[in-house]
Amino acid sequence: KKPLFTSRLFSVVWDEAHCVSKWAGFRPEYKEAGRLRFLIPRFIPFVIVSATLPP
């Protein structure tokens, strides 16, 4: 939430989102990925994508 950081940030794009649940076992920080949405100002686009997400 630092103004200098967010003033330079224009979007957050995370590809291979399915890895968050798969890798959370050995990368516990991945479980906290959802918190990013609350730390980044709402006017900054936040996109999470993956070609292999289940329906």
What's the main sheet like?
2 strands, parallel
Distance, first to last CA = 33 Å
Would you identify the regions where 5 or more consecutive residues have pLDDT less than 50? none
Structural class: alpha+beta
Rounded to an integer, what's the Rg over CA atoms? Answer: 13 Å
Q: In the residues, how many domains can be counted?
A: 1
User: What spatial form do the alpha-carbon principal axes imply?
Assistant: globular
> What is the number of E strands?
2
Mean pLDDT reading: 82
| Main sheet strand line-up | 1-2
**SSE sequence, one letter per element:** HEHHE
The helix content is 25-40%
Strand content: 5-15%
Question: How large is the count of helical segments?
Answer: 3
